[in-house]
Amino acid sequence: MKFQNELKDSIRKALPELDVVIGWCGSFDRLHATPHFIRREEDIEKLEIGPLSVHNLATYLPGLRGKKVGIVVKGCDSRSVIELLQEKLIDREDITIFGFPCTGVVDQAKIKKALGYVGNVESCDMSDKSMVLVIDGQTHLLNFSEIKAEKCYSCKYPDAIISDHFVGDKIGNGDSTDANYEALETFEKLPVSERFGYWLKELDRCIRCYACRNACPLCVCRDHCAAESREPHWLSQENNVRDKLMFQVIHAYHLAGRCTECGECQRACPVDIPVLMLKQKMNKEVRDIFKYEAGVDPEETPPLLSFKMEEENITEKDW
Amino acid sequence: MNTKNLYLPEMATIQEVIEETHNIVTFRVTLNNQEAMKNFSFEPGNVGQLSAFGIGESTFVINSPPTRMDYLQFSVMRSGEVTTKLHSLKAGDQVGVRAPLGNHFPYENMKGKDIVFVGGGIGMAPLRTLLLFMLDNRDDYGKITLLYGARSPLDMAYNYELQDWLDRDDLDTHLTIDAEFEGWEHNVGLIPNVLLEIAPSAENSVAITCGPPIMIKFTLQALEKLGFKDEQIVTTLEKRMKCGVGICGRCNIGSSYVCKDGPVYTGAQLKELPNEL
Amino acid sequence: MALVKYLKSSDLKSWLAELAQKNSVFAPRYEGDSVIFAPFDPEQEIFIKNAATAPPKKTVFPQSEKLVDFKYSKDPEDLSRILIDAKENLPEGTAIVFGGRPCDVRGFTMFDRVYMSEEATDIYYKTRRDNTSFITLACDSTENTCFCNWVNSSPSDPTGSDVLAIPVGDGLLLKAVSDRGESLLTSKLLSDGESRIGEGEKVCKEAAESLSQVQDLSNAPQKLLEVFDSIEFWEDVSAKCLSCGACTYLCPTCYCFNITDETKGLQASRIRSWDNCMSALFTMEASGHNPRPTKAHRLKNRVGHKFSYYPDLHDGVISCCGCGRCIKSCPAGVDIREIVLKAIEFEPTVVEG
To answer: pLDDT digit string (tens) for C50-98?
Structure first.
């Protein structure tokens, strides 16, 4: 990334005032990145940003409350920061935001699917358009357009919406237009029994690790989650797909109108369950009723966190 | 204990319920299988799992001594789901028992020695087992001193036997509460401070202490001041437990499993373990 | 000389179908985009090219199982009394697990030391363990996250298996490892495999050579105790951890569990379900005190258990089979190898005076 050095300089200048700056660095192979916690000057060199910077680092912010934290954000990640600010779960004066123009990140599941096996990556080179992978001596060329995360195709906010330091040239954010719910809308047309059957089948393999919950930047109940609580006793510990579905429903409801659709729940799932769609469904309803999009304006209040005597689009008196 | 199926509780009947304090209830239970009750054997310090069926299990020390086998006694402080359910039970109700579990007080090594018991709150329960056991084998031990403290007289369990303990010639009993209370005739002050005032001799002595973590911490410091060495101090630990047999993996401190290798540890053993209380 | 047979790939399903006549057979297959062990279904393709996303742990240690069933009834002699009937719920039947990897299956040997010790035997685990056979697939390729060679194993380690299947040519060379394994190799679909033994050895050798260089972990138990009190160390290595249970639930050697009761009307069950030490509730005490209050404490226990406490109790055996799933499937890229190596290199800072 051409502005990577610019970003490093920017972090270097800010670091003395900060406890930590969170970015990304290389991981166990060249195809993977991992969150990188920069505490010392010498940690800065390892920083890498690009299409492998998949993790939404805003997830770490509530846990670091009280510390001076710098965070590198993609456009989509910045929406989670805004949402956390709206809900007063983090403090603006403690957060230093480093933005960069994001041209999209990869979906590791798509790469795995395209190649069948990505276990022994020897090298990985990326340009704007493609990725060249060498695995077990064999070279594979992948078009970036085939392996991009689903959210990137309809991204309206490639530039951080909120930032203190922005490196590189802005790509230009779109207006708050309608999100693309094409896949969801197709799914919605299926009969109820088929939709329900789909979820029972997909969730059957859920191992209840709650990576979906813990990776979610807005799942902030953390150690007090309904999933594991005995009092109240919402879910049983039986290996029962209905309990697994129940948790996903609770998760989606808690996120209605708050979820920025960063997709971390789905990315984190170790058994690839497409749980993002449930949250998209709730967001779509919120959009239709409240004309609201989460994580765009720090001064807004999410519709389900506010109360109006008379809602504009819910006219229960007419029912 | 069902050794074939470690998780299958023995059915037991509550014979008597004693309201100790506003949040502590004592249950006296017998196993329904008379043969099992007759053959039941345990050591002072062993714990058991009590089942509130359909709610769950929790760990409690057997606080009646093996020298008095008419019933098994458990004192239950209300703190969560299982204990709340247990508190609703009455005489005649069924509970499950998995016992004995864990290790026990090394009373063999205490023979011929002076004994100092220091108990705080519900921490008196395990001490009661050993105290009664020693009183039932009185000749085996030297001077026995008991210091029992609670927040207030209303928080003091085993009220009905305290007078007997105070009256006995072969037991030096001291009671203390945290703050002045009308009508209270005994010590007032935190346990570690009162312990320093009583100042039992460390020579040829063993101190056995149990109570909340903060009390234990300062009691250990007080005992050290009095000259007690690590190996002269015995305590029992509390951890969240499930299986009770060293398998489920949550109660470990380093490689020691409190449910199986504990809950009784000497001060010397504790110093060997990683610092994760 | 142990029995050696050969099975053509095209006969694999027929062979498993034969075995499935008398046993439950589990085999890896795609469910969505993940490879999961599921009851053998001749209608569905078996996937054996690489290790499955989740190991076959659940075949012997189910994600959730009913230990005891309770039934309530009124005492006919005294209607104010409720009688409770408790019934154990022991597993039945025999099972064959096809397609686990040497690391996956060796993982059960680490369970064995805990679940079937001289002090205590877990009857539920033992019943399944005794009644389950393993036809294990040796790896012909390895992944960047594989490190079985660091923990005294190899891509063709037969430990814990009954049959070792080595991909050779267009089929599998099947080597009986146990007597039970021999009895599984009687099908007419199998031909003599003696002539292909050399080929099989070559596959195993090449796979072993493709692994990363072995690291000496012999002083890990001691070093992890030395670094125990350095909260900075553990905060540093756990910073990116999300405290979820993906690593533990996908781990072939993580064996911790919870026991909870579930009530439905006049019936209840005592359930054992997977639990994990990365969860705050795992050690939360009734008083509200938690000996492992942060993810730093919890990750310390996970690493410490595998590389220090377990070896301390079990003849130095590391309770990690090197499958690498915790690395590969971690949503935040936590790498247990890196943590252990860092602990080994750890030098306590000496405070002057």
So the answer is: 999 999 999 999 999 999 999 999 989 888 888 999 999 999 999 999 9
Complete edge-to-edge strand list for the sheet that includes strand A138-143: A121-126, A130-135, A138-143
Q: Which two tokens stand for residue C30?
A: 């795609």
Residue boundaries of the structural domains of chain A: 1-104+157-175, 108-147, 178-319
B269 inside domain: no
Own/partner long-range contacts of A37-43 (Cβ < 8 Å, ≥24 apart): A37/C236, A37/C239, A37/C240, A38/A11, A38/A70, A39/C236, A41/A12, A41/A15
Residues 109-168 of C with CB under 8 A from B: 114-115, 119-124
Residue of B nearest to C279 (CA): B250
CB atoms within 10 A of CB C312: 16
Range of the domain at B46: 10-101
Please state the domain extents for chain C. Answer: 4-345
ipTM value, please give it.
0.94
pTM of the model: 0.95
What strands lie across the sheet with C78-88, from one edge to the other?
A: C78-88, C64-75, C267-274, C257-264
Residue A120's contacts (CB-CB under 8 Å, 6 or more residues apart) are A135, A136, C141, C142, C143, C144, C210
- Cβ distance of B6 and C286 shorter than 8 Å: no
pLDDT tens column, B32-71 = 999 999 999 999 999 999 999 999 999 999 999 999 999 9
With an 8 Å Cβ cutoff, is C236 touching chain A? Answer: yes
Query: In angstroms, rounded to a whole number, what is the distance separating the alpha carbons of residues B212 and B60?
Result: 15
Q: Which two tokens stand for residue A4?
A: 């990577």
C273 touches chain A (CB under 8 A): yes
Q: Is residue B266 part of a domain?
A: no
- Using CA atoms, how far apart are residues A228 and A225, in angstroms rounded to an integer? 6
